Amino acid sequence: xxxxxxxLKVNNAGIRFGGLKAVSDVNLELKQGxxxxxxxxxxxxxxxxxxxxxxxxxxxxxxxxxxxxxLNGQPPxxxxxxxxxxxxxxxxxxxxxxxxxxxxxxxxxxxxxxxMSSIFRLPKHFSEEKYMEEKAIEFLKIFSLDNVMHETAKNxxxxxxxxxxxxxxxxxxxxxxxxxxxxAGMNPQETEELMNLIALIRKKFDxxxxxxxxxxxxxxxxxxxxYVLDHGxxxxxxxxxxxxxxxxxxxxxxGEEVS
Amino acid sequence: xxxxxxAKGFWSSIVLAIVFGVVMQFLITGEIINFFYxxxxxFIGINIILAASLHLIIGITGQFSIGxxxxxxxxxxxxxxxxxxxxxxxxxxxxxxxxxxxxxGLIIGIPTLRLKGDYLAIATLGFGxxxxxxxxxxxYVGGASGMTVTQLTTWPWLFGSILLTLxxxxxxxxxTHGRACISVRENEIAADAMGINTTYYKxxxxxxxxxxxxxxxxxxxxxxxxxxxxxxxxxxxFDILIFVVxxxxxxxxxxxxxxILLTIVSTFLQSYPELRMIxxxxxxxxxxxxxxxxxxxxxxxxxxxxxxxxxKGGVNDDSKHTVA
Amino acid sequence: xxxxxxxxxxxxxxxxxxxxxxxxxxVYGIVKLINFAHGDIFMVGAFIGFYSITILDLGFFPSLLxxxxxxxxxxxxxxxxxxxxxxxxxxxxxxxxAIGVSLLIEYGVIYVRGAQPEAYPGDxxxxxSLDFLGVKVSSQSLLILGTSVxxxxxxxxxxxxxxxxxxxxxxxxxxxxxxxxxxxxxxTISATFAIGSALAGAAGVAFGMYYTxxxxxxxxxxxxxxxxxxxxxxxxxxxGAMVGGLLLGVIESLVSAAGFSLWRxxxxxxxxxxxxIFRPAGLFGKNVREKV
Lengths: 259, 324, 292
Description:
The complex is a heterotrimer. Chain A is an alpha/beta fold.
């Protein structure tokens, strides 16, 4: 793979629900290692676009390619195995499981022991489970969650739940990480810590990250490039500076153009 | 290190169980406990297997199946055909009962497990009824009048089956595969997004649960001299469901405990079947009103001895989802 | 001719299913609960009707009315005592409670009066039958069909033209929003249970008239089948329940006519599983996706 081949390539992708076009004609490319923002006003179709990328919805038009491989129509779990992992806008943890087990679940698809070896407790079961546990603890340490690893996930405070969700997504070993409003509901200080953490994991795991944010200012600070979605269509893309001065973007956020 | 300690505790509990089994065998052969109690003991044993097998489907994987008697029936009839019609040894009957029920589980599970909550419940209930009606109409197995079966269920077979059921389900649950099932119960969408093949694990849990229900069916058939389609109606499914619900959704020891307790209670109420059902239903309603998590909640008995180990379980069902 | 005859029988049976299915669908539409006890309310209705006819010596219509009123009260009581406290509980808890209530009614009735069946008196209405194109339509069939049609028209009127009907539609659409708009949600839900249960009571009396034999566990199978009918038509949709009920009745009769009468009870569940797999929203329903 040459350095120029994009990691993710989205060609004219879109989906319609009945007669309603929720997202249409989206063209988007992410290069290996980029941190890109996807912004847009409420109801612009940002989360729907994430759902297209992760296979929750099947695109009714266009194509989505990861590393040159077409993803359309594959079920979510296969897409995750191919290297796209995500967090959710409304946190979706495995509430009754411990923090540690939450991360272990994400590591499941990398485990090599069969159901039979677990049922009959063959040596493979023990070695793999041990390895999983060590790996999971490693991830928790990065997110400073190792001190609460035996806590039940639902009992964590909100900020830690958000972090756990990212840790879990990372444990699925993605090439591309999709973060859906990771800073929602956080105060400015927590947000800043989170952004630093994202920058850190990106470097450490050589990740490509696509980030949805509602808050434009925040995205401007960390992202190298930004795509703007409005009414299900991309209306602009470019550097934060270009986006800031784009009249279409201003119009989308402020409503009718003031002439 | 932690895992080694687990393994040690695991083996010592198996040794303890085997000692218990051998002692019971002596008590039975020495006629120290009378026939009535032995009979109750067999009832309890079969119900423990049923409770644990449904626990895997409802408590662990969160798939609300209320047609479990259907698998019991498939196992009972399949094993009876093996021993009575083909005149093969009981061991084959046990195995055939389990395998036939597991296949039935796959056949019904693959299409219906896409459904959620109420819809799955109704579909499995419908499956249970279909099974009953099918046996009612097959002359080969005696139709409505049923099939006579030789009494072959003995304590070693029964105890061995219980032990196997509990070990397999426990080992499955406490592994990455069990966690995958729990993640489906907790949040199916997130499980999917974390790379879990949710359909696969739902079907696997369903098939394993069905397998052991089938084994229970084989033991059941060879303990009662006769099996009839009416033994496997909706009420039987309900009997099994109540073990799991009362014990605590997500707790195997809870389900087993409830199976023991309720079997004893219903033995005492045997001559008052209406009263038994009234008490059962009242207990169920009151339980749901005041302690919906069941006796044990999501905890296992072992968690009372170990501190710091997190409990697994608890059925998460998002009541805000509207289906229609 | 045989085919037409079976069609007529199917429509009579189907109209009973439809009456029960309406209660299921209304209750599900408003509180998202499969009211398992609904089939047992139908059974209670049949017994109330029987006692009104035999002990109180009343005619068909007064008995029907008494049965409907009693069932309506029973339905509201069940809702207030068992279901209301669980309105915010998990769906599984509510479903289990409903199963519990169902068993309580069944075995409560057995405990009080025993399990022996009763026979509806056959001489309540003149046993004449119309010959229409060679098809025999008994006066019972006509009466049942007429009663069902009238009740369904009445229901449509209540749901679409009255204030309580408007409230019911609002609550089923969005309970919280309805509450904010000043609708008394509790009363609306009670009214839904009352209307649904009254229809089940009427179905019970109709069933007794048509099939003569009634017993305390008679509600289980027709109850489940009526639920199938509700799912078939699209649960939560009132016209769907009517069409689903009639359709199921006709399918069953045709299966009997084809010589598979022993399999009749299984057909409903096969229909159920097929519809759940291929069109889970039912014939009249729209698919709603889960929001991610």
